Amino acid sequence: MMVFASSDKGGTGRSVTSCNLAYRLSLLGYDVAYLDFDFGSPTAGAIFEISSLERGTAEGGLHSYILGRVAKPMRVDIRAVTERNDMKTRPPGSGKLMLYPGDDGGAEFALTKPHIKKAIALFEQVEREFDVCIVDLSAGRSSALDMSLQAVSPNVRPRSADPVRWLLFHRWTTQHVIAASGLLFGTNGIISCAANAGFGASEFTDLVRTIRTAVPDSTAFGTNAVPEQEAWLRESDDILKGLAKTRHLGQDLLAGTTPLEPMLLWREQVILDVDVKRNLAKQATTDAFDKLAHKVINSHAWEGF
Amino acid sequence: MARPVAPSSETTSPHQPQVVLGAVTTGLLNTSEPLPLDAARQALALVPGVEADWRQYPVEQVVSPDLYLGLDCRLAVSSGSPPRIIGTARARAVLTAGHFLQGSARVDVLLGASKRRLPWSHYMAHTGVAEAINKARPADIVTGFLEDRPAKSILDLGNTGAHVMSLLDEVPQIDRRARLKTQTHRLLWAALVQEDVEPDGHVEAGDDGVFRVQMSMPSELLPDFMEMCEILALHHWLLAALKNAFDRSSRTGPSAERELEAALSYLGHVWNPKAHLPHAMRWFWDALEDAAQLSWEWQTTLTRVRDKVSLLTRKAIEETLLREVL
Q1: Cβ distance A17 to A258 under 8 Å?
Q2: How many CB atoms are closer than 10 A to CB A298?
Q3: B181:A125 CB<8 A
Q4: Closest by alpha carbon to B151, among A74, A102, A77, A126?
Q5: Complex prediction ipTM
Q6: Which of B154, B166, B180, B252 best probes binding to A when mutated, by most A CB atoms within 10 angstroms?
Q7: Are A183 and A25 in contact (CB under 8 A)?
Q8: What does B249-288 look like in DSSP terms, one character per residue?
Q9: Which of B215, B255, B181, B202 shows the shortest CA–CA distance to B27?
Q10: Alpha-carbon gap, residue A120 to A127, rounded angstroms
Q11: Which residues does chain B have within 8 Å of residue A2's beta carbon, measured at their own beta carbons?
């Protein structure tokens, strides 16, 4: 299964949520590959705490592979190379967790047919080994996004192949909702690109779900939230829900929400169960990631939104 | 039904290659069911006008004609500066039991033939041979090649094998619906050619999952040795694929029944390393079996898979009965 992670703007928590999603899926027993297609700033290495890949790899990463500079992209077993001690051991019953890093200093490129062919070959290869392949795309429109759409379009991908999911991450604010809606539905947006790549518009919309990240609740005011603050928060939330609905990003398209998590605000990293045990992270955060992981993998839930 | 044996070039070459390097890449053909023999023969006719070799018993196997790929690169060596080689590598695709695809690549390295690059026609006259234009010791070439540290402009025969495998992607019968999650493996081999020695060699299993085979032998044994490496690569891959499926069936995520069903129907019937093993290589295989016990491990793993299927079936029956009682 290919899962694409896109977002309207930087700083939405797309990469950090995707990395956490990958980690939770591997704990559930699935073999997971994480493909860092954020060619401008590959950060997955930093989130998984692999210091040699903090800004991507020096050579032979996905960017080099797509450009045809190497025949085989570099890949690393995250548990074998992470510096995070608690993440090093593979719990019994869990699956593989592999990172395909981007290149340090990789940049935008003009998309051509050979690039798309490379992407098709890459996707085929990772899908044969892994249950879930998460492709982290850079914020906004990019060649990587276009290339991905072309590589999974019905013109080249047999209908019998595993499902494709498209996740759109956005923060829960007025500006982000408007921007996310623009990225998806606007002129030259994802849906119009998908149509150019050979998808039917409604067929592609069925693949898309949104994820609202860092959604605050009343605890954001501190422990002593007063009723006025709670009421205000509820009201703001309702206004945003109304806005999302008019922008076609309502409940029917929602895959999940992740709560505001101080641990992620300070440091973008993978939240482990021990972090929750040590009271560093909220239980609600790992619960949200788990819920998301189940939704992504479950075809029934995906169709039945 | 016989496979090609003697490489045509060696009879015409004035020198014998001192080192022969090879790599076998092994994976599952991406189809839900094995390719029937006639379809496989069509698919592996990779050179227009040349038919693929095939044999039906005891295990179906189809071998593509040799493809030649131009080389101008450097060889990794364990000490000294990497020598530049120019010439061609030969590569072929091997499909066993309609489902297990291998890309097998080989290059014969000729040392000390010339000190500068000659016109391409010179190299085309000796296909499958690459000439080194800098000095290097054969033993250093063997060690450097088997270390397998990929770098820019260094010979990577594993990729050549993968390339040959990818030539089959366009075959219409390939429905991309393989039900088993598998990883592509590579095996590297290197031979020191010495006419007056008894063949002697060893196999190393690396941390990276790569088998490395090294042997000194007279040149007449090369085709047999290469075939044995293909057989070893295939059976190492089969074992890894079966163990992976068993491991996956013990997890909560993927469905245990589906994993085991695919493992049994794809892999259960194909273990037969001696089926096509050349006679001249039996001693090597027997020594390997003695040390690594691959066949024993295969049998044990297969028994575990079958036992698990029985237990899951019993559990399913009991649950159904219980539901009927309630």
Answers
A1: yes
A2: 11
A3: no
A4: A74
A5: 0.85
A6: B252
A7: no
A8: HTSSSS-HHHHHHHHHHHHTT---TTSS--GGGHHHHHHH
A9: B181
A10: 11
A11: none
**In the structure encoding, which two tokens stand for residue B112, read together?**
């000390």
Q: Is the peptide bond preceding residue B58 cis, with omega within 30 degrees of 0?
A: yes
Which of B159, B178, B251 is the closest to A128 by Cβ?
Answer: B178
Say how far apart CA B294 and CA B300 lie, in whole Å: 10
> What's the number of CA atoms in the CB half-sphere (13 Å) around residue B17?
31
**Tokens 């939770």 correspond to what residue?**
A24
Which contacts of A172-177 are long-range, i.e. CB under 8 A and separated by 24 or more positions? A172/A212, A172/A213, A172/A214, A172/A215, A172/A216, A172/A237, A172/A240, A172/A257, A173/A240, A174/A239, A174/A240, A174/A243, A176/A8, A176/A9, A176/A12, A177/A240, A177/A243, A177/A244, A177/A247, A177/A249
List chain A pLDDT tens, one digit each, 305 residues.
999 999 988 888 899 999 999 999 999 999 999 999 988 888 899 999 999 998 888 888 999 999 988 888 999 999 999 999 999 989 989 999 999 999 988 777 888 999 999 999 999 999 999 999 999 998 888 889 999 999 999 998 887 788 899 999 999 999 999 999 999 999 889 999 999 999 988 889 889 999 999 888 777 777 777 888 888 888 988 999 999 899 988 888 888 888 888 778 778 888 888 888 888 888 888 999 999 999 998 877 677 54
Q: Quick check: A136 and A168 in contact, CB under 8 A?
A: no
Q: Which two tokens stand for residue A278?
A: 């040590």
Tokens of A205: 């919309």
Length of chain B: 326
Q: Which among B159, B163, B251 has the least Cβ separation from residue A29?
A: B251
| C-alpha span between B177 and B179 (Å, rounded) | 6
Angle at A286 between CA A277 and CA A253, to 5 degrees: 170
How many CB atoms within 10 Å of residue A84? 14
